[in-house]
Amino acid sequence: MRLTEFHQLIEDEFGGAHGEWIVHSHVIADLGDTPEMLIENGVDPKVVWEKLCDDFDIPESRRFGIDRPGK
Fold this sequence. Notes:
Largest sheet: none
Number of strands: 0
């Protein structure tokens, strides 16, 4: 997963401001750090996204973001 895709999924699910707060402040239980630091330290954004979804109980149906025609 590209970093741009990760950020789009964050915005789709949480919104702009709340999503940014989560990326900078939420410590992912299974990984022990914030999404920002995990990605900065080389963890695949896909793994970070999956663990965030687990932490926030995001259903499978919403884990792929919003359908955008033409993309």
